C-alpha cells in the first residue's frame, strides 16, 4: 500500500539518509503491510542524556523521546499499537476554560454543571503539559504546536523550524525545517488531514504541514522582499504544493490566501483574493486532484459522497470561520467543527494504512483574547462535540485520540460562588472563605459592588480607576485584616446582565488583546498508547509518545534516520528537505 511514500520519503530525508537507512535495516525489514513495524512496537528503552550547556534541537528531540519512553514504561503501555491518530488542539484551552465550559454545558442541559464532564474529560488518561518555548516563558501558538508536531521545542513565532535561525530569516531557516507527524504519516503511506475553525494557514494548522521562521507569512503578500528573493513560500502555497499526494483532507477558513489579488470571493462581496503571485491555488488544487472535491459552503459539503471522495479541500470563509455563536447566521452555511471532523474521518478511513488527523478548535483562543468568556466557553463546548463525533466514527481499539491545548490564558475564577451559580453570572455565595457558616447571598467586593466569577488578568475588559492607595503601582500588604482599602474604581454591575453573550469580563491590566498564560495545560488521551500520557510532560514529548505507539510512524522515523540499529531514537531530529529540493529544481 506504499503508493507515494518512496518519493515523499526522499523529499523528507536528508542527503546522508541512505547510509542511515542501511543502519536501520534491522528495524525496517518487516515486509508485509500488516506486520510492518510490529517488531518495533514493543516497549523501547531510551536512556535520558545529560542536558548540554545549550539546548540544541537535537537535545530537545532526544530528551522528548526519553521522556516518552519512560512515561510509557511506567504505565506499562509498551506494545500498544495505534493504526490511526487524531490530535485535537483546543487553542488556548486552559484548565479554567475547561472547568467553566463544563459548568456551562451542564447548566445549559439543566443538570449539575460542576460535576458535568465534557467528552474528553471522560477519557481514562491525562497528563500535564509544560508549554514554555526556547525563548518565552509564556508561549505563542506557533512554537508550541511545532513542539507537539515535531518533538522539538522552538521559539515563539516559528512554524516547523528549529530554534537555530533568527526570526524572519528565510535563508537561515533552510535546513532547519523539522519533519512533522503529518509528514511522517504521509511518508508512511497513511492518509493525512488538518481541520480548523481558523484560517487553514493560521499558526496551529500551518504547523502540521508547513515550515517558516515567521507565522505571519500565511500568504505571499505578507512575505518580506528578502524572504521572497531567498525562495521562501507562504503557508497557503506550501499546503497546495505539499509533496506526494498532498494532504488528503484540509478544511477551515482562509479563502483569500488562496485566490489571486482582486479575485472575487464567492460568498462575500467585500472580500477579495490576496495573492500577489497571481496563483489561483484553489484552481491548482482542483487540477492536481481531478477526483478530489473542493467545497466552500455547508450545502456543497453535505452533497458529497464522502466515503468515495479521495481528497477534500474545504475553505468556508474568506478569513477565520465564524464563532459557533454566529455560525447559523452565515448566509451560505458553514459546517460545525463536529461536522467537519466526521466528514474528514469518513474520507480518511478509506486508507487501510490508517490516518493522521489534526482538529483545532481555533477560536477558543480568539474569544479569550477578546476578553469574552461566553464565546470561549461556547467554542470549547463545540470542540468537545467534535471529539465526541470522532469517538463515534472510530474504534478505540485502533485509534489513539489525544486532546490538548497549546497554551493557557489569563481567565480565572474569583470569589466563592455557591454550587450551581450561573458560571457567567455574578458571585452569589459567601463573602470569604472564613464565613462558611453564614447564609450565602450576594457576595459583594470590598466596595459593596457585585462582581463576576470569571475575570481576566489582562485584556480589553479593564475598567480603569484606582483604589485607596494613591495612583500608580500598589504595594503589599494592600488589604490588612481582609478589609480591602478599595472604595471605588469598579463599575456597578447590579443592573448589568453579565450572562449576555457580548459582555466583557473585567480585566486587571488594560491591553488591546488579553494575553496567553504561562502555566501547564492538560492532555487527555484514549486508545492505544494513551496510558503513556501521565505525570507532567514537556510539550514536545507528545510527538514522541504518538510516534512510539504508532508502528507505521515509528518505523518511518527509523527509516528516515532518527533511530539507531536497535530502533532507539537518537539525538538526530528529522529535517524536511522538500522545500529546499523544490527551490533547487526551479
Ligand atoms: Zn492566542
Automatic annotation (TrEMBL):
Gene3D superfamilies: Alkaline Phosphatase, subunit A. Keywords: Phosphoprotein, Signal. It comes from the Bacteria. Residues 461-492 are annotated as: Disordered. Residues 1-30 form the signal peptide. The keyword Phosphoprotein applies. InterPro entries: Alkaline_phosphatase (IPR001952), Alkaline_phosphatase_core_sf (IPR017850), TAT_signal (IPR006311). PANTHER family: ALKALINE PHOSPHATASE. Belongs to the alkaline phosphatase family. This is Alkaline phosphatase. It comes from Dyella ginsengisoli. The lineage of its organism: Bacteria, Pseudomonadati, Pseudomonadota, Gammaproteobacteria, Lysobacterales.
Amino acid at each position: 500500500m506504499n503508493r507515494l511514500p518512496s518519493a515523499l520519503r526522499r523529499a523528507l530525508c536528508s542527503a546522508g539518509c541512505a547510509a542511515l537507512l542501511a543502519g536501520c535495516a534491522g528495524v525496517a525489514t518487516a515486509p508485509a503491510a500488516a506486520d510492518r513495524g510490529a517488531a518495533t512496537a514493543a516497549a523501547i528503552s531510551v536512556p535520558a542524556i545529560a542536558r548540554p550547556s545549550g539546548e540544541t534541537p537535537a537535545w530537545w528531540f532526544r530528551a522528548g523521546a526519553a521522556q516518552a519512553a519512560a512515561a510509557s514504561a511506567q504505565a506499562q503501555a509498551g506494545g500498544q499499537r495505534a493504526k490511526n491518530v487524531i490530535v485535537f488542539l483546543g487553542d488556548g484551552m486552559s484548565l479554567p476554560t475547561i472547568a467553566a465550559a463544563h459548568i456551562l454545558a451542564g447548566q445549559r442541559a439543566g443538570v449539575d454543571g460542576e460535576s458535568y464532564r465534557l467528552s474528553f474529560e471522560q477519557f481514562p488518561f491525562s497528563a500535564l503539559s509544560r508549554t514554555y518555548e526556547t525563548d518565552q516563558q509564556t508561549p505563542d501558538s506557533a512554537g508550541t504546536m511545532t513542539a507537539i508536531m515535531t518533538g522539538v521545542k522552538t521559539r515563539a513565532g516559528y512554524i516547523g523550524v528549529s530554534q537555530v535561525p533568527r526570526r524572519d530569516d528565510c535563508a537561515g531557516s533552510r535546513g532547519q525545517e523539522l519533519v512533522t507527524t503529518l509528514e511522517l504519516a504521509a511518508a508512511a503511506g497513511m492518509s493525512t488531514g488538518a481541520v480548523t475553525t481558523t484560517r487553514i494557514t493560521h499558526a496551529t494548522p500551518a504547523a502540521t504541514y508547513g515550515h517558516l521562521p515567521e507565522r505571519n507569512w500565511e500568504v505571499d503578500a505578507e512575505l518580506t522582499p528578502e524572504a521572497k528573493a531567498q525562495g521562501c513560500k507562504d503557508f497557503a502555497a506550501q499546503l497546495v504544493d505539499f509533496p506526494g499526494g498532498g494532504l488528503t483532507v484540509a478544511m477551515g477558513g482562509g479563502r483569500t490566501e488562496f485566490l489571486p489579488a482582486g479575485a472575487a470571493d464567492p460568498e462575500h462581496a467585500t472580500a477579495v483574493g490576496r495573492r500577489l503571485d497571481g496563483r489561483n491555488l484553489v484552481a491548482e488544487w482542483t487540477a492536481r486532484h481531478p477526483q478530489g472535491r473542493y467545497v466552500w459552503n455547508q450545502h456543497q459539503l453535505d452533497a458529497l459522497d464522502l466515503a468515495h471522495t479521495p481528497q477534500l479541500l474545504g475553505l468556508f470563509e474568506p478569513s477565520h470561520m465564524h464563532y459557533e455563536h454566529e455560525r447559523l447566521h452565515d448566509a451560505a452555511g458553514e459546517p460545525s467543527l463536529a461536522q467537519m471532523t466526521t466528514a474528514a474521518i469518513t474520507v480518511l478511513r478509506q486508507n487501510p494504512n490508517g490516518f493522521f488527523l489534526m482538529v483545532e478548535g481555533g477560536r477558543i483562543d480568539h474569544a479569550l483574547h477578546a476578553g469574552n468568556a461566553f464565546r470561549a466557553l461556547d467554542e470549547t463546548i463545540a470542540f468537545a462535540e467534535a471529539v465526541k463525533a470522532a469517538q463515534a466514527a472510530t474504534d478505540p481499539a485502533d485509534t489513539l485520540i489525544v486532546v490538548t491545548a497549546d497554551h493557557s490564558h489569563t481567565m480565572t475564577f474569583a470569589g466563592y460562588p455557591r454550587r450551581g451559580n450561573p458560571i457567567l453570572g455574578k458571585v452569589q455565595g459567601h463573602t470569604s472563605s472564613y464565613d462558611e457558616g453564614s447564609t450565602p447571598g450576594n457576595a459583594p467586593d470590598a466596595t459593596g459592588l457585585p462582581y463576576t466569577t470569571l475575570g481576566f488578568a489582562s485584556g480589553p475588559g479593564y475598567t480603569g480607576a484606582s483604589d485607596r492607595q494613591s495612583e500608580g503601582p500598589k504595594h503589599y500588604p494592600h488589604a490588612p485584616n481582609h478589609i480591602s482599602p478599595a472604595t471605588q474604581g469598579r463599575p456597578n454591575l447590579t443592573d448589568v446582565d453579565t450572562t449576555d453573550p457580548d459582555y466583557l469580563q473585567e480585566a486587571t491590566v488594560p491591553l488591546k488583546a488579553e494575553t496567553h498564560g504561562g502555566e501547564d495545560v492538560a492532555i487527555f488521551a484514549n486508545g492505544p498508547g494513551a496510558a503513556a500520557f501521565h505525570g507532567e510532560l514537556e510539550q514536545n514529548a507528545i510527538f514522541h509518545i504518538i510516534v512510539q505507539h504508532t508502528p507505521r510512524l515509528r518505523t518511518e522515523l527509523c527509516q528516515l534516520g532518527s533511530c539507531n540499529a536497535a530502533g532507539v531514537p537518537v539525538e538526530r531530529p528529522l529535517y524536511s528537505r522538500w522545500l529546499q529540493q523544490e527551490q533547487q529544481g526551479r
